[in-house]
Give the backbone structure.
Amino acid sequence: MRKSQIWRGLSAFTAMVLTLSVVGTTVVSDHRTDIDKFLGTTSTKVVTDEEVDTSEMYTYTSDYANTTELVTAMADIGERMSEEGSVLLKNNGALPLTADETGKVSLLGFSSYFPNKGAILGPTAAENHGTDADTIDLVGALEARGFTLNDTLKKMYNSDGLKAIFKSEVATWTGTMEYLNLTAPAVGGVYTDKEPSVSQLDSADAGWRDSLNASNVLILTIGRAGSENADYTPGEAGVDPADGLNQADPLGLSDDERGLIAAAIESKKASGGKLIILLNNGNPMEIDELADNDDIDAILHVGTPGSFGFYGVADILKGDVNPSGHLTDTYAVDNSISPAAMNYGDLQWANANPATYINDAIVEAEGIYTGYKYYETRYADTVLGQGNAAAEVGSTGGAWSYDNEVTYTFGYGLSYTTFEQKITACDVDLGSRTAKVTVEVTNTGDVAGKDAVQLYVSVPYTDYDREHLVEKSAIQLLDFGKTGIIEPGQTETVELTADLYYMASWDSTSENAAGTTGCYILDDGDYYFTVGNGAHEALNNVLAAQGKTTADGMTADGNAENVIVWNLDKLDNTTFAHTKNGTAVENQLADMDLNYWMPGTVTYLSRNDWAATFPQTYSGLTATDEMLDIMDNDVYVYQTGGEGAITWGAQNGLTLANLKGVTDMEDDRWDLLIDQMELSEALIRTAFGGTSTKSIASITSPEAIQNDGPTGFGSYPIGQYGTKDASTGDPCVLAANDPNAGFMGNIMANNIVVAQTFNKDLAYEWGKIVGNYSLWSNCTILWGISANQHRLPYCARNLEYYSEDPVLSSFLAAKQTVGEQEYGVIAAVKHFCFNDTEMNRTGVAPFMTEQKAREGDIRCMQSAIEDARCLGVMTAYNRAGVYTDNSHTGLIKNILHGEFGFYGLISEDFIMDPGYVCLKEAVQNGITMSCNTGDNSLEAVAGYYPNAGWNLETVGADATVQQALKEAMKMQNYAIANSNAMDGLVASSHLESVKTWYDNLFTGLTVASAILFALCAFMLYRTRKD
Amino acid sequence: MKRALFGTIVNALAVIAACFGLVQYFTNAGTTYFKGLGTNPAVIAATVIAIAALVVWCLLGEARTTWKDILPIAAPALLMFALLTLLNSRINGIAAIMTCENNAANMADLQSALYALGGLGVAAVLACLAAFFSVKKA
C-alpha cells in the first residue's frame, strides 16, 4: 500500500468521523430530552440569586422522611389494595384456610409460579429488587406468610422442560422476547393456550399427582394477560386453530385448563382436600363451568395485583383479612354474543385509505347497553314482559334467560361473613342536585370485615323515551361507599351524597337553555333507590317493589323493603341544563352518529324491542365524499392578514414563578406573562411535547417530566431525577448510596383491582402516595388516571381502566386525582375519549349516539375533570366519528373545556404521523402539545411537520390560530405553575443551559477529527506532490 | 494488482450497499407509517452524490492528481451524513413502534427503515475502507 493511499484512507476516515460528530450533534440536540432521561443527565438548570429569600421556594413537602419510609408505604398500600380488591366469587367454606391447611398447599398451573403481576405494556408492574421494598410473586408472598408449598410441583414448574411449553414469544423490532408468564395476543392475533396438559405434566414429573396427597390444599391459578397494544378477538376466531383444545373463545377455558382442573378435583376427592381457583386476569373470563362445578370449593379473582398485591392475596387465603372486593365487570357466559361484540375488531371501510389512516369504522350500535346495563335491563324486561326481551337473539340458546347468560354480575362479591344492608333514608333535592342517602350495614355473621355499599337507582322508561329514542338502563350505580371493619353483630351507618347528574339521561331531541336541542333529562315517574350485593340483587329489589316475584320469572325474590321510591311528576329538562360551571349544554356529538352522515344506516339497540334492534355487524361501510373530506385530516384552512394582530415578545418583566400557585385563570398577569413569549416558542412547544414539557426561556417555565402510567410512576426510578444535593433546600433529598434510588413507582395493581375495592378513601390514599413519589423522584406529570370504559371484555387493555361502569370509574379517578394533586402532581386523565379498542387505534372511527358517548366513556372521566380539577388530560389516537379525536371541536373544546371547565395541559397520545397530529385544528380546540420530540428550533418543526404550515409565516398571518396558541400556552403553564415542577423556583430564578458530558464529547470529537482530517489531507497533498 | 482488485471489489460493494440503502429509503418513505414524513432531499442528494463519486473514482482509476482523491474521501462522509439524517427522522417512529405501536404492519414498515439505515451504514464503512486501496491497476 502506497503512502498516498494510506493518507487518503485516513482522510476519508477522519472526514467521516467529522461528519458523524457534526451531524451527530444535531441528532443529539433533536432528542436531547430523551437522551438526558436515558443517561440521567440534564441540559438546563435553574439558577437563583443566593441573596433572594428562598423560604417559599418549595411549596410541597413529603409525608415521609426518607425513601425507605416511602417505598415501605407503597408496599403497604399495594398489599391493602389487593386485600380489598380481590373478589371472592365462590366459597363453600373452604376459605379461609386453617393454620394446618396453610402447611400443605399445592400450587397448580404455571400462572401460580409465573403470574401476571401487571400488563406486558402499559400498566406494568415494577420488578424492584435490592431495595427496601422488593417485588413479590405468589410463591414468595405465600412463603412469607408462612405457607408450606409442595416442593415437587415447585421444581416441576420451574423445570426447563415445562418452561419450554408455557413460554410465550413476542416479536419485537430487535427480535423475539420470551415471557414465562401469559401474554395477550398482538392486535389482530390469536390466543394460544400455554397451560401444559396433564400428560405433559406427567412427562415432566411422573410423581406430581402423588405429591398432592400430602399437600392436598390445591390452589390452581388460571388467567389471561392484558396489555396496551393488544386485543382479544371474540369467539373461535380469536383462538389459535392449531391448538385444537375445544376452546370457543380466547377468554374461555381450553381443554388443557379443564384437564388440569379435572386432575385436581380427582386428587382432592381422593385425599379429602380442597380446590381453590385463583383468577389472574383483567379481562372477564368465561368461567360458568367453574362456577357450576360443585367440586371446586372456592374461586378468588385476584386480577393482576402489582408488585405487592400477592401479600394481600395470601392474607385473604389465610383469613388474616376478610375479602370485601366486588366485581367491576360482568362475567358473562359467552362474551362473544353480547350486543357490543357484534361490532368489534378489524371492521374496515370499503374505501379504506392507509395514506390518511382511514381504516376501521366501529359502530357502537349497542348504545348505552354496555356490560350489566345490557344484561340486567334485558332481564328486567323479561320479568316485566316487555320489549321482546325473551327473544332468542343474543342468547346462548333458546329464549333469552338471565341465568343462562350471566355467571357473575357487576358489583358481586362474597365475604367470610354476612352483611345486611338497609337503605333507611333517601332525601332527593333537585335544587342541590343531590340525594342524601343513609344505609345501615350490619355484620350478621361471625367474622369481622368491611362491606361495600352500592347505591343503585332505577329510572323510569317512558313513552316519551320510546318516542325520542332515549334509552334507560333498568338499574344503574349512582354512588358507593365502603365501611370500616365491622365486628360481628355491629352496625355501621354509611352516609352518601349522590350526585343526581349521574342518573340523568341525554336526550338529543330535548329543548335546552341554549335555545338549541340536546339536554340531560329526568323523566316523570318513579325512581327506585336501593342497595345490593351487585346490580342483580339491587334490580331484584326494584322489581320486588314493582310487585314482581319469581313467579314472574325473577331469578330470586327481591327485598321490596330495601327500596325507597321518589316520584317526579313531570319531565325535567332544566335541572341539568347547565353544567357545574354554568355552561348550557347542547348537542355536541351529533356527527358521531353514523346516521348523521349516512341516514338510516344504523339501528341502535333499544329496550323498546330487543329482538328488532339487536345490533347487526357493520363492516365494509363506504364513507361518503363529505366524510372523506374530513377524514383526510386537514380540515382547517389558514387565514391571512393577521400579521401583528397578536402580541408576542412583550417585555413585562414576569416569570412563571410570579404566578406560582395562582389558581385564578382570570388573573390579568397570565395574559401579560404569555405576551412575553415569542410566536416561535409557542409553535415549537405545541409541536414538540414529547416526553416532557420543555423549558421556555422567555417566561422561565421549567421542564416538567412526563411519566406513564396507570400503576404509578413507571418511566423513571426515584434516583433518575431525585435530588441528591442537600444544599438545594429541597426537602426530599436522597441519601448517599440510597438503596431505593433504583426503585420504580409502577407498583400498584391494575385499575380493575383498585376499582374492585369500591373504596374511595383507598384510591385517595394511593393518589397521595403517588404524590409523595413525585416529590422524591422530581417527576411531575403522570399519565396515570386511565379511565376509559370497558366497552366489552375483549380489549386487552381493559385492565388499565377501572370498570364497565362510569360512576365507579369516575369517582375513583377523581379521588386518586385529588390525592396526587395535593402534592403537586399534574394528574392526567386519559384517554379522552373513546379509546375502545387497540385495533388500528390510529384512525379507527368509533360511531355512537350522543347519549352513549355522554353517559359512557365521557362520564367515566367527568368527575376527575369537573370535580377533582385534574391539571392534565391526554386525548386519544382514535377518531371521534370522522374527525380525529383532537380535531373534534364538540368533544374537546365544547365539552372538555366548555362544559367541564378543564383548564390545564392537554397532550395528544403518542401519535407519530405528522398529518394525523392535526396541529392547527388541535390547538384551536385547546390541545396544548403533541407527543413528538425534536430540537428547540423551527427548522426541526418544519422537518417533522413538512406539510402542517406550522411556521412563522403561515401561522403569523392567522390571528385565530395565534390566539389559540396563546391560550394553549396559558393553559399549559397554568398547570405547571400549580404543580411541583415549580419547586425550587422563585420569581428571580432563570434557566441556564448546561453542557453535558456528551455535549463535550461531541465537541471534542469534532475538534479532534477536524484537526486530524486537516493533517491527513495535508499529508496526502504532500505525498502527491512528492 | 490484488490490492487494486480488492479495492475495486470493496468499492463496488459500497456502491451496491448505498444503492440498496437508497432503494430501501424510498420504500420506507412510501409505507403507511412513515409516509407522512415525506422524503428528505438531503438524504437523497448525499447518497446519490456519494454513489456517483465512487463510480467516477472507479472509472477514472487510481489517482495521480490530488483532486481525484476528493471522490473517495467525500463519499463516506456523504454516506454518513445521509445515514444520520435519515436516523434523525426515524427515531421517533422507531421508539413508538418499539413500545406503543408494535404490531405486524408497523413492524413491516419499520423493516425498510432499518434496512436503509443498515445499507447506508455498511456503504459508509466500505467506502471508507476502499479509500485505502487502488481501484484498478494504475
